Structure formats: structure tokens, C-alpha cells
Amino acid sequence: MTEGAQQPLPIRLDKLRVAITGGAGGIGRVIADSFAACGAKPFVSDIDETALADCPHPAMLADAGDAAALERFIGAAAETLGGLDVLINNAGIAGPTKSVDAVTPAELDATLQICLASQFHCARHAVPLLREAGGGSIINLSSAAGKFGFPLRSPYSAAKWGVIGFTRTLAMELGPDGIRVNALLPGLVDGPRVRSMIAAKAESRGVGNNEQTAMAVSSVSLRCFVTQQDIANMALYLASPFGATITGQALSIDGGIESLF
After folding, report:
1. pLDDT, tens digit, 9 for 90 and up, residues 225-242
2. Residues near 120 by Cβ (< 8 Å), separated by ≥ 6?
3. pTM to 2 decimals?
4. CA 21, CA 247: separation in Å to the nearest integer?
5. Is 237 a catalytic residue?
6. Which letter does DSSP use for residue 102 in this model?
7. Would the pLDDT of 81 be above 90?
8. What DSSP character marks residue 175?
């Protein structure tokens, strides 16, 4: 487990074979650590070579914006693990923080490619392996931005809304094969990414970080951020027998957030 992390749910997932994109750092690393702590076998990809060097799990360098690299990743995961039971599409980027008229085509393309198209490419290659395993689970990372408008973050929000449509369609398509597909919608997850996002929003609006932070949590029922472990715990639950009949769902882990700032 990463230093200072909470403990994962006490669920046994012995020998479950799990592929995780963006799994060497951040939420992905906590998900990988948590599956390993519960007896599963994770295989991760990441573009961050420093994070990969520190990762204790089988891993490979792969750019989530490169469809060919994702195909190689799924193939390597299946070869290393002896098959596949779970795919977790975690890789993503924040995208630009600016008004729509200031967003460049390159920024839009990169955000959609990594936050949405990467999930399609991974699923496309993972589904035959999940069928071979007799069924399994796909868990796609969306966001609270996939159910609310998100001013100054239009490419990211568009991608995360797209993840939910993709998830619900795949659940219908793959249900007869015993493959469950769900989306996780994290709210404000404490860590460098949300702090950077708050700083960017504060700068864009000409206010201080403390004021922007207070504004962010004011719309959360529990008035708090959630943790990376909270997200990992839901992934564990969905991949376990407890989630055996849960599919096609967009599950919020957000402390009761009512709007994004």
C-alpha cells in the first residue's frame, strides 16, 4: 500500500486478474494496491516513467492517447496474468481550464482521446479476453463532471459525459456474455490533481485558493473532499461477488455533491 493510505475493504479477490490504465500513480495506484492487498493480480500501464519505477506491480509504459500502445497493454496484461477478469479504465487528464472560445483543437482532441477514446480502445481488446474467462467486469472512471455542467472545463466534462453513455451501452451489449460494466463518478478527490484544478480556477477567476476551495466544498453535502481509497473501495466492491448483479450504473463517490464550481 502507498504510504499513509487507508486500508481497502476486507474483500478477498484471490487470483483475480486486473488490468488498470494509469495505474502507477494517483487513484490508479491506490486501486492497484488495494486489489493486490485483497489477493488479486494487477497489471498496470502508465505514461509516467518515474511512477512506474516506483510501482511494485507488473507494469508497462503506455500512452493512453495511443491506440496501438493500448492494444499492446491489454495483450501484455493477458500474457502476464494468464488471462483477464477485470478492466479498469482509469487513465485521464484534466484538460484545459479556460472558456470554450479559448480551447484549441489540440487541447480538445487530447482530452477526448485520453479520457474517452482510450476506454473504447481498451474495452475493444479486453472484451474477447473477458468472454474467454466466462465473464468479468469493466469499470470506467467518469467524474462528477459527467453529470453536472462544469464551467471552464468543457472538454473534460464532454468526455466524462461520454464515458457514462459508453458504459451504459456496453452494459447492454455485453450483459449476455456475463460482463458487467459500470462507471465511477468521483467528486472532489483530495490530492495534487484537484489542488491544481482549484489553483487554476482561482487564477482564472481572480480569487485566492482558500476562497476557491471554500466555494468548491460548499456544494458538497458532507463539506469535504473524498479520498482515493474511497474510489478504490467502490472498484473492489464492483469486481467482487457483492457486485455480481450491478451493471450499467453511474455510481457517484462524492460526499453528496450538488454542483461543480
Report:
1. 899 999 999 999 999 999
2. 166
3. 0.90
4. 20
5. no
6. G
7. yes
8. G
